[in-house]
Amino acid sequence: MPKTKQATSVTKTAMIQNINPVSSNINITKVVNVRDGGIMVRCENSDECIKFKNLSDEKLANDYTIKEVPVLNPRFKIVGISENLSENDLINGIKSQNNNEICPKSNLPITFEKE
Question: For residue 83, what are the domain limits?
Fold first, then answer.
């Protein structure tokens, strides 16, 4: 987030000029515009996020506020299950069908509500 209000294009240009993702070997998967000229950058993995944050702190901290946004676990609401499934079968089924959204080691709390 820029310390003074500016266009997001100015922020993106400053990022690319100071932290060249190609030469820094950082794989950026998504850049999202946020309010007041800020941008949110998503990297491919946590190591690249740490590397990007360190470079940002080093090169852009004078003009920009740099912070990590915590990743939230997705929430699912499943209704109308006709089969009697055990908790483990249900959890494994959800994880196998949503492997891009759920970290394999994540804790997936399940709450059962009977109708």
Answer: 73-115
